[in-house]
Amino acid sequence: MSVRKIAVITSRTLWLAFTVQVVAQFIVELPYDKWLGWLPALGAIAIDIALGRSAARAAATGAAPEPVETDCPVTGRWSALNSPADKVPSHGTHLYGQTYAIDITAESDPDSEESPRPGFAWIWPVARRSQDFPAFGAPLLAVADATVVRATDRQRDHLSRNSLPALIYMLLVEGFVRLLGGAHRVVGNHLVLDLGDCTYAMYAHLRRGSLVVREGDRVRAGQLLAECGNSGNSSEPHVHFQLMDGPDLSVARGIPFTWRGIGVPGNGETFYSAVPQNASH
Q1: What pLDDT is recorded for position 118?
Q2: CA distance 59 to 138
Q3: What are the residue ranges spanned by the domains of the chain?
Q4: CA separation for the pair 190, 178 (Å, rounded)
Q5: d(CA 206, CA 231)
Q6: Peptide bond into 118 cis (omega under 30)
Q7: Is the pLDDT score of 263 beyond 70?
Q8: Who's near 3: CB < 8 A, 6+ residues apart?
Q9: In this predicted structure, what is the pLDDT of residue 181?
Q10: How far apart are CA 214 and CA 225, in angstroms?
């Protein structure tokens, strides 16, 4: 086990110990000064800062790697959020291999009779059903010929968090609880493909029960893999896509990508992805 992996596990353990103490103090009298209860949190913060700096140094060392070109994982009309075209790391952290990750969400065709994607609400409605968003249930395709190395879809799809009250809840409560559960609770249902040459593609927030492939399967570019969902630390149904140098999210480092014929859409940019000619469903 690597030093980085041990550090990640230690940090999670310390955060869990701190959380248990906070809850326990409302039930029983702790046999030590309450200020000592902050030590696990301080230790976890120190480790998290060290991990973040280590990942940042590794990302900044030498020239940035050349982007790996792949197919786009979706078809139709989509828009980009948290794009590496605007900033790196795109999600504000290098952890979990997210340095060059991108979030994309489906947009309804303006010339169709489809309901538009619900916008952000300051107060009401506090939450919406996942089915209200055009991205929910959208097919996700293999971006290259690859081997499935991780595939899980047992976590539930929750209501949206695209209102101010719900977003505050997600950031301050739900997000912290998911961090205690580890990377798989943050990304929700997810899929990892081995593209070869130490390059892995990760799709996060899949719809529960939508996987049509299993670990060990060999897939072809354009093949149907699963459906877009709203599991994990997600404000609304969307696809979180990233390339990384290993299958273990807790120690993987991000790799830049570019989608064939599209490039890397910037924040707020709407793009259209056609069905690959070699797609198989």
Answers
A1: 83
A2: 33
A3: 3-60, 68-273
A4: 15
A5: 6
A6: no
A7: yes
A8: none
A9: 75
A10: 9
Report the alpha-carbon distance of residue 91 to residue 233 in Å, rounded: 13
The half-sphere exposure of 154 on its side-chain side, counting CA atoms within 13 A, is 5
Contact in structure between 249 and 96 (CB atoms under 8 Å) = yes
CA 111/CA 243 separation, integer angstroms: 34
The rounded mean pLDDT for the chain is 85
Range with the largest mean pLDDT of 114-118, 170-174, 253-257: 253-257
Residue range 24-83, pLDDT digits in tens: 666 766 666 666 666 666 666 776 676 666 666 666 665 567 899 999 999 999 999 999
Helix 39-60 and helix 3-24: axis angle, to 10°?
150
For 68-273, give the CATH class: mainly beta
Tokens 């075209």 identify what position? 85
